[in-house]
Amino acid sequence: MRRLPPVLLEDGCPRELISLIRTVLAACKEISFRVGQGALSGVLGSTLDENIQGETQKKLDVLTNQLLKDILLESGYVKAIASEEEDFTVAGNPDAKYIVAFDPLDGSSNTDINSLVGTIFSIMEAPEGADPADQSIFMQPGKNQVAAGYVLYGPSTVLALTTGKGTRFFTLDKTHGTFLLTEDFASIPEETSEFAINASNQRHWQPAMQNYITDLIAGDTGPRGRNFNMRWIAAMVGDVHRVLCRGGIFTYPTDTKDPNKPNKLRLLYEANPMAMLIEQAGGIASTGTERIMDIQPNAIHQRVAVILGSKNEVETCLSYHK
Ligand code: F6P
Ligand code: MN
Hints:
Elements: H1 4-10, H2 15-37, E1 46-50, E2 56-58, H3 59-75, E3 78-83, E4 90-91, E5 98-106, E6 117-125, E7 147-153, E8 157-162, E9 167-173, E10 178-183, E11 194-196, H4 207-218, E12 229-230, H5 236-246, E13 249-252, E14 265-266, H6 267-280, E15 284-286, E16 303-304, E17 306-309, H7 311-320
Parallel strand pairs: 3-5, 11-12, 11-13
Antiparallel strand pairs: 1-2, 3-4, 5-6, 6-7, 7-8, 8-9, 9-10, 13-17, 14-16, 15-17
């Protein structure tokens, strides 16, 4: 099986970008180890703090954020970082070319039940001559990403990675600490009979999503004329991985549950990198009205509606939104 650097070199990926990706992965290997230790290393449970988004921070949110931040800033490969767990962006090496946005531990409420969690990352180039302390360097649409990926800490630790030449899976060989290529070109089936949504929010959804899900649930007695199955892992990284592996539609739509928070998922750390992985595997990622990677961000912690997955099913869902 092939190691990551030669695979990327063959694609013509710049050496500096490969080094940066390897730096992110160095942190992820340590996270994989710590998550795997679970209760043995005393890292489960919550802190007494909330993050900038008003969510209770898990001990592992804080620890994984610090790890990624330290390793990335020490490396010299990044001009600045933006993290879901940081109030503001953090300046790095002024001479570096790249900026990294990350969700250090997606699905962290799953840590205490020994269920799926993962690290999501997005890499872009900083504008020429930009000040590393200037937050606006992150205000670029997702289509500018030069690499995106996640590391899923499950029964095995899997990296899904794209540098714009397809989506690949690498599996961490924990004996040697190496990510080995285990699927060269992930391809999402265009048709699916599986959907993922937090159905407890149904009464808060907008009419288009209400109608779409009602028709899925009606199965072979409704307009779709066939049955659908539902899954919800409560960690986007786990749900997106299932969609990349065997197809499906995943959505966290706009809702009216909390008027101050119409959308849940974050554009920079969650929606954009997942959208790139999905599109590179032949799927679609939309808000319901526009392509996720076309959105011009106006704040680092901006949230968006997400509908992604199998091409034909996402298109059907979007037709309800017209
Ligand atoms: O990071 C936000 C997140 O935890 C996603 O990973 C996940 O898809 C979603 O929120 C879960 O939401 P809920 O708590 O509504 O199930
Ligand atoms: Mn998350």
